[in-house]
Design goal:
The structure is a single chain. By secondary structure, this protein is an alpha+beta fold. Helices cover about 40% and strands about 25% of the residues. A seven-stranded mixed β-sheet has the order 1-2-6-5-4-3-7. Helix 1 packs across helix 5.
């Protein structure tokens, strides 16, 4: 696992892997495409990551994580690009800003957090900690609806508002 210095490098690496395997995608579902890429790509490259930002110590303690650093791996970005093609590179580049300006942080379980940022649009990202509590990774990032936000506010503990 290697840290990538810029988000642009993470994005370019992810796109090149997707495009390299592009000839094999005909008539495959999104899940099948993601699984194909994972099975047929170099695991060391898939595990490379970019540090998006940090949680506050308060939030890290609340979710029982031993770190505040949030990573976005090549593997997760590939999955996200395929599942959410509507997101632009500009939106991905704003992840750090969204993280630091999150208006809602909700504790979904002891392994997942949901972040929402409202700025004319609502975005949701899920952050999962590893089993040993030593690392935090973004697993999903996408646009969300006000209805989903309101539902989740009712369902899950608010860590930040």
């Amino acid at each position: 696992m290697r840290e990538i210095n810029t988000f642009d490098e993470l994005y370019k690496t992810s796109i090149s892997i997707i495009e390299d395997k592009n000839n094999f995608y005909d008539n495959y579902s999104v899940t099948e495409i993601i699984n194909f890429i994972r099975f047929n790509s170099d695991k060391d490259i898939l595990n490379n990551y970019f540090v998006v930002g940090n949680l506050s110590n308060y939030v890290a303690n609340k979710i029982q994580a031993n770190t505040t650093m949030i990573k976005f791996s090549v593997d997760s970005l590939i999955k996200n690009i395929i599942e959410h093609p509507e997101l632009t590179l500009g939106e991905y580049k704003n992840l750090t800003k969204y993280l630091y300006n999150a208006e809602y942080i909700l504790l979904k379980s002891n392994k997942n957090l949901i972040y929402f940022k409202i700025d004319n649009k609502i975005y949701q990202f899920v952050i999962k900690k590893t089993q040993n509590n030593e690392e935090l990774f973004i697993t999903t990032f996408h646009k969300a609806s006000i209805n989903q936000l309101n539902k989740d506010i009712q369902r899950y503990e608010q860590i930040k508002r």
